[in-house]
């Protein structure tokens, strides 16, 4: 995955600029012109801040937050060997993404993000985050947990 794919957030375009030596400006703009922007000397932290702000804006104004989360998860995990990924508009926008004996579930009815593992054929909730307190870093952390289920070294997601 190249840098620009890694910076991508569904429904947002990104722009990165080095405004002076070692100082970066990262901007995300949605289709309605709303902008999330950050400046800093740490490239990664600047990207994380701008992406987090875009995530928060999307959370506040999105007409289909559940689909946004699903698309962000699938896009971020594009290079993973996922067993299954399914979104259901008929089930309140619930979705799940699985990799081996682990899965990430979004319960659209109760607005919960749940990380589960399968033991002896049964799915068991390991971590549950209510949507009301779900942050960008929480979401990426859950994706990293799913990504790292078979990897010995930590995968950097999304950049």
Q: Which helices and strands appear, and what pairs or packs with what?
A:
Layout: H1 3-6, E1 12-20, E2 23-30, E3 35-40, H2 43-61, H3 65-76, E4 84-88, E5 94-99, E6 102-107, E7 112-119, E8 122-130, H4 136-147
Antiparallel strand pairs: 1-2, 2-3, 4-5, 5-6, 6-7, 7-8
Summarize the structure.
By secondary structure, this protein is α+β, with helices and mostly antiparallel strands. It is 30% helix and 36% strand.
| Biggest sheet details | 5 strands, antiparallel
**Amount of helix:** 25-40%
* Beta strand count: 8
Number of domains: 2
Average pLDDT rating: 91
Q: Based on CA inertia axes, which overall geometry fits?
A: globular
Strand pairing plus helix content: what structural class? alpha+beta
* Radius of gyration of CA atoms, rounded to a whole number: 16 Å
Q: End-to-end span in angstroms?
A: 9 Å
Beta-strand residue percentage: 35-45%
Q: How would you write the strand order of the largest sheet?
A: 4-5-6-7-8
Low-confidence parts, pLDDT < 50 over ≥5 residues? Answer: 1-5, 150-157
* Count of runs of 4 or more consecutive helical residues: 4
Q: Sketch the topology as an H/E string, one letter per element.
A: HEEEHHEEEEEH
């Amino acid at each position: 995955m190249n840098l620009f794919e890694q910076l991508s957030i569904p429904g947002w375009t990104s722009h990165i600029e080095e405004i002076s030596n070692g100082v970066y400006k990262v901007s995300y703009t949605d289709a309605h012109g709303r902008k999330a922007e950050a400046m800093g000397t740490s490239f990664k932290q600047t990207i994380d801040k701008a992406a987090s702000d875009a995530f928060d804006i999307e959370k506040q104004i999105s007409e289909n937050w559940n689909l946004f989360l699903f698309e962000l998860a699938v896009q971020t995990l594009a290079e993973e060997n996922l067993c299954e990924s399914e979104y259901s508009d008929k089930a309140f926008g619930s979705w799940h993404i699985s990799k081996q004996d682990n899965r990430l579930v979004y319960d659209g009815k109760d607005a919960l993000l749940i990380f589960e593992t399968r033991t002896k054929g049964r799915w068991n909730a390991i971590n549950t985050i209510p949507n009301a307190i779900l942050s960008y870093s929480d979401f990426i952390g859950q994706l990293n947990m799913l990504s790292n289920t078979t990897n010995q070294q930590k995968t950097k997601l999304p950049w």
